[in-house]
Amino acid sequence: MPYAEPGMAIGLFGGSFNPPHAGHALVAEIALRRLRLDQLWWMVTPGNPLKSTRELLPLEERIRLSEALAPDPRIKVTAFEATLNSRYTADTLRTIKLRNPHIRFVWIMGADNLRDFHLWQRWQRIAATFPIAVIDRPGATLAFLSSKMAKTFDYARLDESDAEVLARKRPPAWTFIHGPRSPLSSTAIRNGMEAPSKGDGFSK
Ligand SMILES: Nc1ncnc2c1ncn2[C@@H]1O[C@H](COP(=O)(O)OP(=O)(O)OP(=O)(O)O)[C@@H](O)[C@H]1O
Ligand SMILES: O=C(O)c1ccc[n+]([C@@H]2O[C@H](COP(=O)([O-])O)[C@@H](O)[C@H]2O)c1
User: Fold this and answer.
1) Which domains does the chain have, with CATH numbers?
2) Is the C-beta atom of 89 inside 6 A of ligand 1?
3) What's the complex ipTM?
4) Interval 84-122: pLDDT, tens
């Protein structure tokens, strides 16, 4: 697990990154800026429990490609979930919290994961562990209104104009961040429809 000073605000950005792309880098940049984070831990998962591992690149390769995409020194690419043998986010966050009682963490995910969040193991426990920032993504914007997570925790949603205080909020607390969006996806890259570094990957 990366080192952090007490009092820091740190974003936890978990992903398969199979492969990583400019859309991920955009999410990291938006989170650092809008949430006023000191660091962002880019956590390469050993394997999303809801996805097949059939097409998964080796962990070392996903780490290497992620490092190449994330030159900002505040971004720490890490794969400590593999060392912890922890595939479920609820388990990972529990361990992170126990080991770092004086750090303020925020879980960061794209809006497609907001749509499916209620399928994650102990999803309500995750929401009760750390605040959550959801970053808009083409095709998933409506998850903001319609997902089970959004409905269940409607009372705990912050306006995105208050995103900079999210890390200091007592969970459950979450916000949906609009802004520049990237249409990139690892699936499209694996299917040969996009080059990982094509253009800047932005769309409004
Ligand atoms: N273009 C994007 N815009 C916003 N969020 C994104 C984007 N691409 C990925 N994310 C988010 O980044 C995290 C890691 O995503 P992941 O590694 O699964 O990439 P992916 O492109 O969604 O992959 P796949 O197509 O294989 O499902 C997730 O929280 C996901 O929602
Ligand atoms: O804990 C779960 O049940 C769970 C289910 C789906 C995804 N996750 C985590 O969500 C993060 C994003 O996953 P992915 O595959 O969309 O990049 C990554 O850290 C996964 O381990 C976690």
Assistant:
1) 10-190 (3.40.50.620)
2) no
3) 0.99
4) 999 999 999 999 999 999 999 999 999 999 999 999 999
